[in-house]
Request: fold
Amino acid sequence: MTGIKATGEKKLMLFSGRAYPELAEEVAEALDIEPTPTSAYDFANGETFVRFNESVRGSDAFVLQSHTAPINQWIMEQLIMVDALKRASAKRITVVAPFFGYARQDKKHRGREPISARLMADLFKTAGAHRLMVVDLHTAQIQGFFDGPVDHLFALPILTGHLKAKLDTEQVTVVAPDAGRVRVAERWSDELGGCPMAIIHKRRDPEVANEVKVFDVVGEVAGRTCVVVDDMIDTGGTIVKAADALFEEGAERVVVAATHGVLSGPAVDRLKNSRISDVVLTNTLPIPDNKRFDKLTVLSIAPLLARAISEVFSDGSVTSLFGGHS
Reply:
């Protein structure tokens, strides 16, 4: 005999941080498994401790944590979980971060600035992650920051499926709120049967965070239902100003669709009090009851995450979920 053959089969294990256990429960239910029991707590000085309550040796481990507020605490907890799995001999570790923190800091705009998205990728690699799984990165090229496979999932089929059922697509114009969203808007247009597109030309004030000056609407929006598509809604300032610009150009109705509902600070009040008729988000981030309002629809990302995890575990194709896009 020239070697020893292992009798064990591959074992999928799902681990959840404390940031958003409800999403992990939903994903686990879709996979027909239970999240692995974990002890996690904070010491008096704020340090995080994590221990898994059963053996993870040889497992295909998926560590789910959405980077919600307080964002730095939950990123650190996920890094510690990855380190614990590496030291406990998990065979492969996949970081599942539906909302990937610091993705907006993907390049230097001016001198003496960090590229924090790259630092994030390096931290996860150093901690022991073999693979990243994320949903709708702020810019797709962030995939290149991580030295290993990155599964870039898209909420597009979930969002478009919902809006197709609600809107007359003959009357829809898809609107990119800035030049960076044009490619996404093109895919939305294709998905909605080739409806027309418009772009809002905007410029940020480099001295003021979250401050946007909206300029021209390029495209035909008069008398149409405008669907503004973005990756996230943070303070809501950009989206509300975009909607105002569209109404000034004669839009009949404005609907907003985004993947990540960060909803910081005044976002909820701004959206509630705006002329936007519907806001559609996914639950990549927790949206508590006090941030929900009549115009808001929240769609679940859990079935998509579960399908992607299942494809990775079975060595299938994740890009097949999105018609070859990545």
Q: What stands out?
A: The radius of gyration is 21 Å. Residues 71-87 form the longest helix (17 residues). The chain has eight helices and 14 strands. The mean pLDDT is 94.
